[in-house]
Amino acid sequence: MTHRAIQYAHSGKAVDRSDWQRLADHLDAVAKLARTRGAFLGLEKAAEIAGRFHDLGKYDPDFDRVLRGEPDARVDHSTAGGRELVDQAPPGSRSVAEVLAYAILGHHAGLPDKDNATEACMTRRFARPAAVLAPGWQDHLPVDYRAAGAELQARMRRDPGKAGHDLSVATRMIFSCLVDADFRDTQAFYDRLEGRRRDRDWPDLQAILPDLRRRLESHVAGFDTASPVNRQRAEIARHIRDRAGLAPGFFTLSVPTGGGKTLASLGFALDHAARHGHRRIIYAIPYTSIIDQTVQVFQAALGADVVLEHHSGIETKVGGEEGSDKARLAMEDWAAPVVVTTNVQLFESLFAARPSRCRKLHNIAGSVIVLDEAQCLPRKLLLPTLAMLDSLVAHYGCSVVICTATQPAFDSSELKQGGLPLTGRELAPDPAGLTEAFRRVRIETGAEMDDPALVAALAGTSQGFVIVNSRKHALALYRRAAEAGLDGLVHLTTRQYPAHRRRIIATIKDRLAKGQPCRLIATSLIEAGVDLDFPVGWRAEAGLDSVIQAAGRVNREGRRPLEASVLTVFTAPDDPPFGEIGKLAGAMRSTAGRFDDLLHPDAIRDWFEQVYWRDGAGRLDAGDVLGQFVLGRGETNFAFRSVAETYRMIDSPMVPVIVARDDRARKEVARLGLADPSGALARALQLYVVQIPARARETLRRMARAAFMPASSAAIVFRAGRW
What sign for the dihedral angle of Cα 543, 545, 549, 555? Predict the structure, then answer.
């Protein structure tokens, strides 16, 4: 009787291979883990098949040489499983097989395109000579294409304009289940081999919801009830939370700046999850500069043990093996009950191809997603972004709260093609009435002010701010104001690292509270969620959404007369708005010509209508992302890798610079040389990181001749005194 040679997935330490992982065991384990993850998505059979076939190429006899560490051994083990599924697909099931093949081909290198000019695409990989696999791989047959196809069909709408996109999202979800299952089983094997233990256990949201809701109630009860503003905020929050029983889906939350949106939306999310069984709460913020503040608010309300902070500044390029702390591991798969993240991290992950970024996607299903300051979503990517949200709500059990003081025209009745079903889904009581109730400021437009005029205006008030559209202008204006000898002068931009900005903002709040001179010159970073309360302000012309957000920093708490609380919108003759900002400013001037009150909901809607649907779909999907997922004639033509490159919320690639200017920063930098960097180190260093364009970093490196220390974030370190 002929005995089959045993095929292995991963090598161990023992010479007799007694501690090596058998390939059949690995495929079985990954199939089961993937099936478990796919069950909530309605994709359990498809995910199981992907898990069972993902490493089929390791049946190539040459893979044993790879495991033995022979330097010239090379085996493409990620193609064979996808090829077999496509080759064996019965008539009518080729698209099902291709969906599974995308996931299998991408489980190490990332989701491929169906066809492009590179050797990494599916078509070219299938055109290579097929590997000769050792006996045993047939044990994983037969494949239930019919069951997998039924699951995929249930995740697609009949609308031809949505079917291809829906199927691409299902492919991403299967891919997420597969790569997470593969990471977990591989990691568990090596943990057993090395005797390691990992703390991965986060509490289940449904199990702790009663306690979280009690914590939030206790936290809010500590607010000053004598304050009229706080009483208004409490009434708004009660109304919003009373609507938590509404059926899952899309919601809008239109509350003026200062109306308490953050805690009100958190309360709604907790109550809605309790009523409908959601698995986690994801709170997405437009800028990293304000995520720190929101995390602090949530941790104070709910406890630090349930809130995960994750954004691109503390993300590594690899997944799985680096670091063992619980927060770092949760960044890989978003297992925490409450996740606070950025729009960049959330949406670029949903359109990503890389396994480490896609690993979390299956855990986004079943979430309450709150989009704070939703008007900040990039217009050039608006239609694919809304389409992704639409699929998450239609097929993956999500509810989405579009939360903003200036509700954008995302409704299908306004945006037409690509809009969302938002009619009748407003959570706030009487948004127009709230605008009047929270009217704290007047907006005046039409002034022309150069830098000397702005300095003179600041000199005429002991407390005030100027917001301009570029860091260059902010710095030049600050230097001119300093030369004029203005007291209490403060400069604030995103080029300051978070720990520095935190100290600056604390100083601003302290000076404002004490009535001391405070003259702030800043970029737009203070407009989205930074709680400052100035008597007056000046804003360089920009989009109406930015202008209204800036107005929210004037008389925020309503302690001053309305007549004296003014935001002046000015044109800067030497620094006119550029690019997209210029177009948005032009639309604002057009709206200002038709409406006396720019804070009125009708004026806001008029402006959003101009910058969204009147510009046409081409400008709202500038990279034709939705056109890259074509389904027809029983086959797919999906371009995952190309879309991952196209869907970028930040145009220029940003890279981190660690500014080590105090003792704590220098202490953390010294740890970068350790062999096992952890997520705790990444989070500690995040307080000292500035994101800058890659070319700018190279220029700094050449000019400063600074010390470069390799780190998991590929950061460059500038030490104090060596600029």
Answer: positive
Side-chain-side CA neighbours of 345 within 13 Å: the count stands at 30
Phi, psi of 424 (to 5 degrees): 75, 15
Looking at residue 714, its amino acid is A
Reported as a single tens digit per residue, the pLDDT across 691-702 is: 777 778 788 777
Tell me whether strands 635-638 and 629-632 are parallel, antiparallel or unpaired: antiparallel
Helix (H) or strand (E) holding 201: none
* Distance (Å, whole) CA 158 – CA 155: 10
Task: Give the whole-angstrom CA distance, residue 636 versus residue 98.
Answer: 7
Cα separation, 647 vs 358, whole angstroms: 14
In three-state secondary structure terms, 585 is: helix
Q: Who contacts 472 (Cβ-Cβ below 8 Å, separation ≥6)?
A: 575
Structure tokens at 400: 């989405």
E-state strands within 137-287: 250-254, 280-285
Q: Specify whether the backbone of 338 is left (phi greater than 0), alpha (psi in -120 to 50) or beta.
A: beta
Look at residue 650 and give its three-state secondary structure: coil
DSSP sequence for 96-116: HHHHHHHHHHTTTT-PPBSS-
The whole-angstrom separation of Cα 84 and Cα 81 is 5
Sign of CA pseudo-dihedral 293, 295, 299, 301: positive
Sign of torsion, CA 641 643 644 645? positive
Residue 133 CA from chain centroid, whole number = 41
Q: Report how far residue 514's alpha carbon sits from residue 502's, in angstroms, rounded to the nearest whole number.
A: 18
> For 391-427, what is each residue's pLDDT tens digit?
999 999 999 999 987 777 788 766 667 889 998 999 9
DSSP 379: G
Q: How confident is the model at residue 609 (pLDDT cuts 50, 70, 90)?
A: confident
Nearest to 309 by CA among 338, 347, 332: 338
Burial class (CB in 10 A: 0-12, 13-18, 19+), 693: middle
Mention every residue, 6+ apart, whose C-beta is less than 8 A from residue 153: none
Closest CA to 615 of 587, 588, 593, 594: 587
Rounded to whole angstroms, what are the CA distances from 694 to 376, 654, 655, 690? Answer: 24, 6, 6, 12
Specify whether the CB–CB gap between 105 and 86 falls below 8 A.
no
| CB of 43 closer than 8 Å to CB of 57 | no
